[in-house]
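Sanity check. The docking grid for acetyl coenzyme *A depends on where the pocket ends up, so I'm generating a full predicted complex first rather than guessing from homology. Inputs follow.
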Amino acid sequence: MTHFRIAGTGSCLPEKIITNNDLSEFLDTSDEWIKTRTGIERRHVLSDGESLLSIGKEACLRALKMADCDPAEVDMLICCTLMGDFISPSLSCMLSGALGLRQDCFTIDQNMGCCGFICGLRTADAFFMSGSVKKVLVVSSEAMSRLVDWTDRSNCVLFGDAAGAVLLEAADNAVDFDFNLAESHEHLHVKRAGDNCPYNSYNYGNEQIIHMNGQEVYKFAVIAIVDRIKSLLNKNNLSPDEIDTYLLHQANLRIINSSIQKFGQNPSKFPHTIEETGNTSSSTCAYLLDIQNRAGRFRRGDKVVLCAFGAGLASIAAYIEW
Ligand code: ACO
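Predicted complex below; grid placement will be based on this.
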């Protein structure tokens, strides 16, 4: 069966860095609280002159360059984002133009919250299996800074902005996924802003901000990671020891550490970037993948597992033979 190999990776962080101490200048918080509860030390935030389009484009260009791939060779672009710069046209449409992709290059925006990037890989895989594409760009570009309440210390300290991309090529590598949706939006959601249509009584308010019950999401996350990875490994007759690298959604270092313990693995198999970026929703796995790839971590034949959880409540794990 044809799946894909990762031929190139790229990422881009906004220039502006906000440290925990910067936040404590206008919030009742501290570097000590944020670091010990989450592992986060700083985050990057879009500022004037930057956009989801600009960082997404840069991440894609870096992935294309690494793969030595001309934009005209790309058959499909999947863009994972909670909300693009515009509601319409989609970010994937805008990126396609900005990158100079072919006019018949098929584009999709995929909104699956923090699971978005891995769901994007899953979507791409279906097209590779159908034989209709040879090269696919999957990019995550997220601006959590636009969705947090900057007056709420329990919320805004956790998040940041980032983009990450991969250029996938058709190949016969082993690739598999395990997905689960426990439909629930009670503990994690972003409502859309209200409208002024006189024919309905929606009352969403005007603020599009993330609402999260941290403790409930935490409990869901530690269970979901173990369930997804165990199920995926069982399907592929693999043991946790056989996996070379685990790339987990970067939401909280304590969640990552709990997974290390539950699988009884060496912590070096679970690299993390949360210190630098905070939680950047679907971009965390894409960014982490690029950083590790550029550090020379992956060898041909390596067994890599990615896993994410988030809004939905959805969780997904991917097994990719490098
Ligand atoms: N600075 C100082 N104190 C704070 C802060 C802050 N930034 N935020 C909350 N506190 C206080 C609270 O008010 C509370 O005070 P109290 O005891 O006087 O009431 C105390 O710290 C403890 O608050 P908790 O919410 O119980 O803290 P907890 O240890 O649960 O950590 C956290 C909160 C970090 C949000 C944790 O629950 C978590 O990481 N949850 C998972 C979040 C997650 O994984 N999200 C991913 C999905 S969403 C997505 O990825 C887009």
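Relevant for the grid: Residues 3-172 form a domain with the Peroxisomal Thiolase; Chain A, domain 1 fold (CATH 3.40.47.10).
Also worth noting: The chain has two domains: 3-172, 176-321.
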